[in-house]
Amino acid sequence: MANAVTTIADNNSLAYEVFWKPLLNDPKINALPFDIISGKIGKELYFDSEFTDSPTIKAACGWDYKCGTGITKKALDPVELDFSFEQCYTVFLKSIFGDSLPDGLKKGELTPEIINRIITKQSNAFNTNMLYALFLSDTGGSTPWLAGIDGVFTKLLAGVAGNDGTVDAGAISSGDLTLANIEGTMYGIYTAQSDLMKTFDNGQKAFIVTQTVYEAWSRFLQVGNGSAWNYANPSTIQNGVTGITYQGIPLINANYIDRGLSLYATAGSPPAVVDPNRVILTVPTNHKIMIDGTGFEMVDPFYDRRKDMVYSPASAMVDYQYGYGELNVIAGF
C-alpha cells in the first residue's frame, strides 16, 4: 500500500536524484500511504459528499427533485522549510576526507565524496523533519519551526471539535496496552468507525500507530492475553511477528512520531510525553501531502574563504490536508 505521487520530476533529472529519489526510497516515507502532490504554489482541493437523499415512489407525471449537498473546498498552502547546511572547512581537513583535500591557494575545493556526504545529510535530515512537521505541526504551538502549518494531529483534532465526522475514540493509557486489554482497545477503535467508513473494504484502510501501540499489539500476537494460549506458530516467539494487521487492516509503525513527541511534545517536571499512545484509523487516500523540492535542485555546496566555512543552502515546501472527516478515527487524546 505505497503512497501515490503525482507530477514529480523526471527520472535521472537533478531534482529527482537530489530530492525525490532519497525521499521516495526512505522506508519511513514509503510506508506512509498518503497521497503526495508535488507543487510549491497553493492548491485547492474539492471533495464531493455522497448523494444520500431517499427516492420516492413515482405515482404521477412529474419529477421529485432532490437537493444535493454542497462541494467542500479545502486548500493546500505550503510553507518553505529550510534545510541548509554549514560546516567549518577544518572539520573536513581533520576527517577521513583530509588526505584528499588541497591546501594553499586551492584550499576550499570540495571532492565529490564531500559533496555527496553533504547532500545525503541534507536529504536525510529533511526526510525525518518533514515527517515531524507533517504529524506534529501546530500553528498555535510553541515550537517555531513546527508553527508554519497545521499537521495531521492538529487538523484531525480540529475536525473532531468542528463535528466534521472525524471520530475521537478516546484516550489510550498504558493500562490499555497490556496483554489483557490491547485487543479490547483495538476493537474499540475499529468499531468507532462512521457508518460511511464501515462501507469501505478493510483492505482499503490502514492503522497508523505509534511504536508503543505497535509493540503492544505485536506482543499480543506472540503470546496472547498473558494466560492460556495455543501456540499455533511457536516460531513467532523466536522471530517476531511480521505483516501485522487487525481485522485485516495493516498497522503502520510510525515510530518517528514517538521520537518527535519526545523532542517536541513534553510537559511537566520531569518532562513527560503528552499523549504518547496514538492511533489513526483511516482510508489513506483521504490524506494529501503537498511537497516540493525545487530548493534542492540547486544544491551546490561552496566554500567561503573569508569565513573558512562550507555552505549548502536547500529548502522544500510542505503542507497537509485531508478530505472527509467521516473516513477518520483517532485515538490516544
Could you give a short description of this structure?
With 333 residues, the chain is α+β, with helices and mostly antiparallel strands. 31% of the residues lie in helices and 22% in strands.
Explain this structure to me?
It is built from eleven helices and 18 strands. By secondary structure, the protein is an alpha+beta fold. Strand 11 and strand 12 form a beta hairpin. Helix 1 crosses helix 4. The longest helix is centred in the middle third of the chain and has 25 residues. The radius of gyration is 24 Å and the shape is globular. The relative contact order is 0.21.
Count of extended strands:
18
The structural class is: alpha+beta
Q: Helical element count? A: 11
Strand composition percent: 15-25%
| Helix share, percent | 25-40%
What would the principal axes of the Cα set say about the shape? globular
Which fold name corresponds to the CATH topology?
A: phage-related protein like fold
Low-confidence stretches: none
N-to-C CA distance: 27 Å
Mean pLDDT: 87
The number of distinct structural domains comes to 1
